[in-house]
Amino acid sequence: MTHFFCHLGKRFGKHGPIALPFISLLAFFLGTGCLGLTANERQPDTDDEVPNDCTGVSCWEPPENGCTPGDELLIYAPSGYCSGGICSYASGQESCHSGLCEEGVCVTTPCQGMTCIDPPPAFCAEEDRTIYAPSGYCSGGSCDYAKKTTPCAQICVSGACQDSPCAEVFCRKPPAPYCRDDSNLFVFSPEGRCVVVEGLPQCLHKGQALPCPGGCVDGRCQGDPCVGVVCDRPPARYCDGAVMVVFGPYGVCDANGFCRYTEQRHPCIEPCVDAQCGEDDACTWVTCNEPPASYCHDLFTQRIYDRDGLCQGGFCSYIHGDINCPDGCEEGRCNGAPDDDMDTGMTTDNDTDTVSQGANETISRQAEDYDTFDFKGDSHGWYLVSTEQTPDVEPDPDPSHADSANGGAYLEALPDDDSGTYSSSSGPQIGFHVTIGAPGRFYIWVRAFSSGPHDNTLHVGVDGTWPDSGRNIQLLRNEDRWMWSSNQRDSGGDVFGIPNTIWLDIDTPGEHHVTFAMREDGFEFDEWIMTTDMDFVPE
Description:
The chain is mainly beta and 539 residues long. Strand 28 and strand 29 form a beta hairpin.
């Protein structure tokens, strides 16, 4: 395993230099590799000697927008890529609604082309802590952000409650992608975990190498600049006269590596002010899909947040859940969890759950290593079963099968009370962040325990959608063993279907969110695989 040294020293942000006490983590870096660590909403410097000039560099300060000779608005992407320690940014052009562009601003619509993802830092007022939403709206050419103030149980210092410094910290600004070598692009997960360094929160992002078939040059894959690009930072909503302008939460990467988002225009009945129609409330146009980072709530508990939040007064709040960590919680996750060295943000050669097989791509994840969960307000949920613990949820007529599960652990949908079947959008869900190198059809395989006719089906979807090809993953019944299946129920033969009839079509490379939803309670879920190889059969 090749190890990279992290940048140690000062990191600079728009609000001035901050000295980060990383020296205490040096032993960890040398022993396990380089962490994709960034200070919360701050940008790192790279003046230390490192194997790659881009190690630790964050590119979140694009040039100001400009105007083309043809009066088009020239827009720079909010995040960039790194080469030789220098940040570059993809760009795109669009016509101003007024037809006129002056000094990088559309006349009459100064908010056009603006992205608002740089909120003020959290701050303290005596024992109260005020935080800002990670994304905002635009009014009059300036960004504004919803905020929330809550009291700390103890004292508040530097914008953090000292009893829980990582609580409600947003880790949404990873280090920049760069060329690890001539054929591999190294990228970081857009969502990180929070760790506490000398009483203050810092963000940690998972690193992963992606192959570039045409070679990697100047921080991008040649022939496909969209590799590693995640389009989840849409332009800010704004008022265009009496029209409310909003954008979809996810975009599409174009041939220049620039993200394009669908614009939606909604006429207001009452005047549009501060990116809000007069007849609407503060939450009408707010999308709650940016949860706080997970973190270690205490020495033996990992706290994670639901992917989908609830808007109140324009600010999104997210339900949290706690995971018991028998071996302790460090670096924002449970020790001893499957693939522990892959999801901690270490930038090592082994930091990938993607396996290249010639022209094919295969991704494998353990079920209990999920990134998000949503019980959907139901009495059922996904519970961890391991060789060391059994959930205290009844009824559960089956014994534990952890001894024969991969990694000695799995998830089970409980209680197992045969309450019927669930649709994909209504059953309790678990989600996984994955990064793919190229678009394609991915066949889904699931490893689960078949114990009866009423606990052997599951749904799978991607990026919030539930295609018909992902519904009703079916196991053979009464096998009383762990088994792999890619069968869709009623897809041929008999009710149990035929292989390779469960798939997800993914149209863009980069980061995606794969979600599994309970169809029947009692389902015991150990592992899953997605692959572009139709001939692939798990061992």
